[in-house]
Automatic annotation (TrEMBL):
Its membrane topology: Multi-pass membrane protein
Family recorded in the similarity comment: Belongs to the UPF0410 family.
Protein's UniProt name: Membrane protein
Record InterPro entries: Transgly_assoc
A Pfam family the protein falls into: Transgly_assoc
One GO CC term, this protein: plasma membrane
Segments passing through the bilayer: 6-23, 30-51, 66-83
């Protein structure tokens, strides 16, 4: 799969916003703002590849990308918290 430079920048920006949002939704993870942003960027990559393949579509535009990425980041934060925290949500 090819990602253009502009697409990569959008994914990084959306990941920053999504990481911040996911950090607010999933409190108590202990990663801090930088860790949540990194997880948000990873969530943006996961969401940009996984959700279209699953047929999940919210809409188009930057807002829908932020929603996709925030969902992906929340899922990643919960998985990391589950693995790191010994199985507690």
């Amino acid at each position: 799969m090819y990602i253009s430079n502009e697409g990569l920048l959008v994914i990084l920006f959306v990941g920053l916003v999504a990481g911040w949002l996911a950090g607010k939704v999933v409190r108590g993870t202990g990663f801090g703002i930088i860790g949540d942003i990194v997880v948000g960027i990873a969530g943006a990559f996961v969401a940009s590849f996984l959700f279209p393949k699953l047929g999940i579509r919210i809409g188009t535009g930057l807002v829908s990308e932020i929603v996709y990425s925030a969902i992906g980041a929340v899922i990643l934060l919960l998985v990391v918290r589950l693995v790191r925290g010994g199985g507690r949500f």
